[in-house]
Every structure is written in C-alpha cells, then in structure tokens.
Automatic annotation (TrEMBL):
The lineage of its organism: Bacteria, Pseudomonadati, Bacteroidota, Bacteroidia, Bacteroidales. Transmembrane segments: none annotated. It catalyses: alpha-D-galactose + ATP = alpha-D-galactose 1-phosphate + ADP + H(+). This is Galactokinase. HAMAP family: Galactokinase. Belongs to the GHMP kinase family. GalK subfamily. One of its GO terms (biological process) is galactose metabolic process. Mg(2+) binds at residues 128, 160. Residues 91-179 form the GHMP kinase N-terminal domain. The record marks 27 as: Transition state stabilizer. ATP binds at residues 67, 122-128. GO terms for molecular function: ATP binding; galactokinase activity; magnesium ion binding. It comes from Paludibacter propionicigenes (strain DSM 17365 / JCM 13257 / WB4). GO terms for cellular component: cytosol. InterPro entries: Galactokinase (IPR000705), Galactokinase_bac (IPR022963), Galactokinase_CS (IPR019741), GalKase_N (IPR019539), GHMP_kinase_C_dom (IPR013750), GHMP_kinase_C_sf (IPR036554), GHMP_kinase_N_dom (IPR006204), GHMP_knse_ATP-bd_CS (IPR006203).
Length: 386
C-alpha cells in the first residue's frame, strides 16, 4: 500500500486525518546467527520493507489499536498499558508503550493508531521487531522523550521479553532502529558498539528465499536454545570464569570444552563459538572484496546451525541444499531464528532467474510448498515519513 492509501485507511477507521506516519524496516542477517544473546557479534542489514504506523491524538484517554490485517479496534485505557493481553498481536506495540511508562514517561493523551506492514509474517525477517521499533520511534517522537536509537532498540527487546515472552537478543530491534541504506551493521551484542560496513556487491544480489514454513519463536524451541547456552556457560565456569560463550576463541573453547558434560549444551556452545569467528572473518572478507570467502562462511554457518544448533529443519535445509547446486550461487544459509522462515543467498545477476526457477521447483517437489523469492534492497532504519 502507498502512504496515501494508508492515510485513507486511517480516515476510514477513525473518521479523522492521521497526524503522523512512521516506518521501521524488517531485517535480514547475512551471518552471525544465535550469537546475539550469547554476547557475540552479528551482521544484519535493514530491508526496504517493514511496518508503518499512523496515529492521531484523541480526547478519550484511551489508546486505540487497529491493524489492517485484523477486523477489530482494540481500545485500552491508561490503566491497562502495562499488562499483556492474552494471545493478542497488540502485545507487541503495547509492550513498547509499557516500557515508556516503566521508565517514568507519563501518557497524558489518547491516541488512535493504525498499523500495516509488508514484512511477510513468520518469514524470520523480523516483522515483530519492526512493529516494536516503529512504535518506540513514534512514541519517542510524540512524547518528546529524546531516547536515542539504541535505547529504542532496547525498549523493543525488553517488550518482547516481557509481553511476547521470547528471550530474544538485541539484533533484530537494533538493525530496525539503526539500519543505513546500502550498509550492513557489524554489531557487538555485548557492548552494543557497531560499525556500518558498506555492502558493495558488483554483479551480485542478495536473494531471500521464503520457505513459507512459518518460524515460531514463541514455540519454546528458541527459549530452549537460550537455556542450553546458559547451561554451557555454567559448566564452563567451573574451569574458567565467563559471562558469555562468545568470550571464547575457538582454540580456548577446544581447551576447556570437556567441562561441558551435557552433550546438547556442548553442541550449542560449539556453534556459538564457531559462528562468532565466522562472523568476524566474513566482515573482513566483505571489506576486502572477497565474496568467495564470504559465501563459504555463509555455507559453513548453515551447516553449523543444522548440525550443532539444530534450528533448521527440512524446509530450510532443502532450500539451502538446492541453492548450493546452482552455478552462480556464492553462498546460502538460513537467516533469522530458524525453525522455518527464510534463507539468504548471494547470487550472481546472471544466475538469479535460474535460481528462482530451479530452486523453487525442486523445493516445491520435495516439500510440497510453493516458495517465494525477494531481491533484497538494503534500506534505512526507523523514520518519520509524514
């Protein structure tokens, strides 16, 4: 939908004109998966599609929420802004507003809110983070609280912990808040120090393949991985003090890995330590223009996520394996939390049509689901657009 169409939808829903329009993007992670909550580095970029939020003040001392994907308007009084609703999409923006209230920000005026997004739900491209960050950005602007983009990302992360009950890392919200056109973000998730790295892909495109097997972070499998990594840290602390798995180099890990007596926790730790190193190497390779090495590291990342972290599944594994068969594919891997969702591939321009045709046909034949493909454009982070 265009912004003008969204304004018309707002007029239809509320009988008034929207006073402001905000946008926040989804993201794709090029490499560095399941390292963010382990204190490691990640390498995401913001996408050109995301979530829009339109609002206008009202005099009713309520906040009205409407999504163009939902039939009803949900109205909440000021005394209901810090309590999650039962299994409602509103928990994502509501959780953000609750974080403002918990930080001592007074909500004194009501708002009518309309939300629409074009991030495919369940694709692992951070539709939830885009919704959280656009809400945080809008209320930061409306309430003149002056929080910087990093704080807005932290507000989004905290709301996901407390209202969606997903113990996510900071990557998704950070990329949505801090993205920059034609750049990826090399983010240290422990210190939140980051570098914007130009993504120069001459004759190569970033291709996202949607398995249409929705990932479900709230299924418990994600939180289980977080717990398994914490167990690995606890057992390693018997021989070496550390807070996060990402503090260990691969050599250091090999010297003390026997302290992890739980075999599952051991596999999870091995992935995290290796993935942190792969991410560092991949950023160096991109800066040096070595896309071949970058692609090899992407492939190795997927294998580790498949074998040691066990978050891929037949859909993602089939998509990656079929991509690896195509001449002109530099690298391909799952992206996002896993358990379904998307892969991300670096594909030479001349191979894109072949990729879409052959990978799509092979995936559909083996899985029975028709996939979807998007050529990614790297966009800016959250903003006010009207």
């Amino acid at each position: 939908m265009t912004v003008q169409e969204l304004k018309s939808a707002f007029q239809s829903a509320y009988g008034k004109t929207a006073e402001a329009v905000y946008f926040s993007p989804g993201r794709v992670n090029l490499i560095g998966e399941h390292t963010d909550y382990n204190g490691g580095s990640v390498f995401p970029c913001a996408l050109s599609f995301g979530t829009y939020l339109l609002l206008a003040k009202n005099d009713k001392k309520v906040i009205n929420f409407k999504s163009l994907n939902q039939p009803e308007i949900i109205s909440l009084g000021f005394d209901q802004l810090t309590t999650p609703l039962d299994k409602s999409w509103v928990n994502y923006p509501l959780g953000v507003i609750a974080q403002f209230v918990k930080r001592g920000v007074a909500i004194t005026e009501g708002y009518d809110i309309l939300i629409w997004g074009n991030v495919p739900n369940g694709a692992g491209l951070s539709s939830s983070a885009a919704l959280e960050v656009v809400t945080a950005y809008a209320f930061n602007d409306q309430l003149e609280t002056g929080f910087n983009r990093t704080v807005l990302a932290q507000i989004g992360q905290k709301s996901e912990h407390e209202f969606a009950l997903v113990n996510c890392g900071i990557m998704d919200q950070f990329a949505s808040a801090n993205g920059a056109k034609d750049h990826a973000i090399h983010l240290n998730c422990d210190t939140l120090e980051f570098e914007l790295v130009p993504v120069k892909l001459e004759g190569v495109k970033i291709l996202i393949s949607n398995t249409h097997s929705p990932h479900k972070l709230d299924s418990g499998a994600y939180n289980q991985r977080v717990a398994e990594c914490k167990l690995a840290v606890e057992q390693l602390n018997k021989v070496r003090p550390l807070k996060y798995l990402a503090e260990l180099t691969e050599a250091e890990f090999k010297s003390i890995e026997s302290a992890i007596t739980d075999p599952v926790a051991h596999k999870r730790a091995r992935h995290v330590v290796g993935e942190v190193q792969r991410t560092s190497d991949a950023v160096k390779a991109l800066k040096a223009g070595d896309l071949t090495l970058f692609g090899q590291l992407m492939n190795a990342s997927h294998v580790s996520l498949r074998d040691d972290y066990e978050v891929t599944g037949p859909e993602l594994d089939t998509m990656a394996a079929e991509a690896w068969k195509i001449d002109g594919v530099i690298g391909s891997r799952m992206t996002g939390g896993g358990f379904g969702g998307c892969t991300v591939s670096l594909v030479k321009d001349e191979a894109i049509d072949t990729f879409i045709k052959e990978v799509g046909a092979a995936y559909e034949a083996k899985i029975g689901i028709k996939p979807e493909f998007y050529i990614a454009e790297i966009g800016n982070g959250a903003c006010k657009i009207g």
